[in-house]
Amino acid sequence: MDSLPDEIVSIIITNATAHELTQLSQTCKRLNRLAEPLLWTNVEFHHHTFHEACDLKQPSPMISASQRFYYWGTEYSGQCKAEKFFEMLQDLLFEDIGRLKQLCSRVESICTVVRSKIDFWQILPYFTKVRALELYGDSSYFDQNEHRSFCPSAPTLSKLRYVKLDGSIPTDVAKWILESCSTVERLELGLLDKPIESRATMEDDFPRLPEDIYSPPEDPTYGRLWGWAVIPRPLSGFLPFHKDATSLGLPRLRHFYLCQPSQSNLSSRMVSYFWSTSAEVSAHKDWENILQASCETLETLSVEQQIGIEHGDGAVDDAEGFFRSDQDGLGSERLMDMLEKALTERKFPALKRVYLKGIVVGSKERGEPIGDVPGGRFMRFLQTKGITCEARLGEGYWFHGDDGMGPSAEWDARDDDWEEELLASVDGQL
């Protein structure tokens, strides 16, 4: 390649894999100069099947699956490469912070599972030019109290356009990222609070609030069921000014996606699930504040609930059976009430589409919402406001009852086509 001009070499190396670029960058200074920016512009550790599956459901707003630059290799998975990547950055943090700033400032997008024992969060503020941030926190590698090295007063990320936060992420980090969202056009949240072990519900000092306990107070085993499985709770208190919606600025937000585990009211289940409605209501208050802060620009709202199911629960064969057996949809009532209240109290002039997933709407086969269930009532409410709405089947949230942890964050794709089955739709034309 020595005889080829830089323009030709650049075209050639744009078709190289991450592993090939790494090898080229080590051959000479010239190739390193041309290859290094490609290695650092987009940091993506998922397998290509992960985003291919995601794009089938909802295309990414910035980078399609085919355009992403994958670090996944034939010999080393994305998980291994992510761990080495974080270790290298942490070494630079202590040994050569100037080089750390130089490299991190080249990154425009980050998409990774955060599973490393290395404290990635203290490095995050150095990605000053990142425009797309997709972080999937793995609960099995997470402890809120172990991430105290993060500086919440660090300068915010001023270039952000797309943010996705999923799973277990430190509250201070989530607050700081949300404070950086004044330029964000698309926001996706599926944040979880710290898990609760089953045995914790049987301790004498465990708070037993009536609204947190599913079994009736007159039940002799009230608060004492052996092996109670605690459905993971949605995170609350993650907004930078969560008590004052007017302080939250989201002047460019056009697409907002929300996801939470949810309770089930299934009489056929083999375990009695513990569900915290107080945690759910607190999370909904934060979500409502985000809706209020984006009411002028919001065009699309996507809302998903995943019925909490403990691994080993044999009441039904799978999550689809759980969902189809739920006839009253009461697990969605608080969420539907909050959304209707938010859309009633404020005007949303740009809102044209609402997507529901995992929410019972009492529908006929791919028809209109019927029956007096919260999801169906909400769809009919949207229809009166001229907003198009689709409801799809959704999936379950499989968690471990012993430690209360959710599923491990995924590096590649699963085959769950039934999740996208259309249940009902309403036309927004008045």
UniProtKB/TrEMBL annotation:
Pfam families: F-box-like (PF12937). Residues 1-43 form the F-box domain. InterPro entries: F-box-like_dom_sf, F-box_dom. This is F-box domain-containing protein. It comes from Fusarium oxysporum. The lineage of its organism: Eukaryota, Fungi, Dikarya, Ascomycota, Pezizomycotina.
